[in-house]
Design brief:
By secondary structure, the protein is an alpha/beta fold. The protein has 12 helices and 17 strands. It has helices at about 1-15, 20-30, 70-75, 85-110, 130-140, 200-215, 225-240, 250-255, 270-285, 365-380, 400, 425-430; strands at about 55, 80-85, 115-125, 145-150, 150, 160, 170-175, 180-190, 220-225, 245, 265, 310, 315-320, 320-325, 355-360, 385-390, 410-415. A 7-stranded mixed beta sheet has the order 12-13-2-1-17-15-16, with helices on one face. Helix 3 (about 70-75) links the parallel strand 1 and strand 2. The longest helix has 23 residues, at about 85-110. Bound molecules: beta-D-glucopyranose. Beta-D-glucopyranose (BGC) binds near residues 124, 198, 227 and 248.
Length: about 425
Amino acid sequence: MEMSRRRFLEVCGLGAMGLANVGVLAGCGGGSSSSTGSSSGASSGTVANKDKPLVWFNRQPSNSSTGELDTAALNFNDKTYYVGFDANQGGEAQGKMVKDYIEKNIASLDRNGDGVIGYVLAIGDVGHNDSIARTRGVRSTLGTAVEKDGKAVSDPIGTNTDGSSSLVQDGKLEVGGKAYIVRELASQEMKNSAGATWDAATAGNAIGTWASSFGDQIDIIVSNNDGMGMSMYNAWSKDNKVPTFGYDANSDAVAAIADGYAGTISQHADVQAYLTLRLLRNSLDGVDINTGIAKADDAGNVLTEDLYKYVEADRSYYAINVAVTADNYTDFTDSTKTYDGVSKQLDSSKSAPKKVWLDIYNAADNFLSSTYQPLLQQYDKLLNLNVDYIGGDGQTESNITNRLGNPSEYDAFAINMVKTDNASSYTSLLS
Ligand code: BGC
């Protein structure tokens, strides 16, 4: 406790000497003034927008075709970070969860007894690196991936009921001394006609189409997220008792595990939502960036090492994923519950109220609206941040950027882009 406080004063002292760093000055100024109540916020008059804290979250600035990180956006200023989760570890965890399920339940799985375990895959967004990692993780673990340039192909295949697709291959699995083939029967990007990706309704329609032409071959359904997974489950697989796997551990999906939804992955949104706002808070206060993260703050908030990792080269904090299945789902029933270890109120005399602009790329996105935002709305109070939440239409960046008319009103920004390539649409407004 004493340490963090001393560190705070030290940083402020240094900040005051380094006149160039106006952001730190503003943070220290805020830290020493007393609380001015809930409507308070901006003391940003002296800080240029380009020097204000910025956190990208959920969609990592990157090239949507190659996945290459947009280092300019990630290093927009020295108070810029990305918060997401470990996409590769998550993709592998999802693949392993499906494979474990097959091995355990093989006796009842092959519905038409043809020796082929057929699955269909709902793809969220072909240009989103999290979606790509999940598709790769599932294919690689099930042995259906084909490699190109050293990487598993993640393209949608359309239909492949006869196993002839060149984008995937038949996997081989031996369970209980018997050999099975694992086949991706079909996959599709779930994008609606207006251009919104990860679209749950599109997935519900797709399973209808697939089921009516080759329903008896479908033994498993895998989805890049729970929004699409639950839509397929409600439309078809619940009644037909076909195990369905999603991602996100949204409350409705976790509840459905009791009725037969096969599993999901928690990307630890409770940790991500905290990090999103906590990094802004720390930058605003001019304290060590890992305050309340790797090391306890004065209130006792701290995250344990198994929950996240920081990769300096990416300027990114990544939450760790865990599988949620029939074995452990009762621990995950409320996806909007803040993480216990970081749920203590900050003292507003040290962390004064500040104003934050934050957007959600698609107000209709299942995960962001039903899990992530409700968490943010609890952490904002604990961290004394007055956040303006802007909900986008999931299709155009301008729908969101148009609502960042006066960045000078805000002390800090948290951005969730429509397309991972589009960071400059935002940074140009701050520059
Ligand atoms: C989530 C999806 C969501 C997407 C939005 C992903 O991390 O798993 O459910 O649609 O983020 O960008």
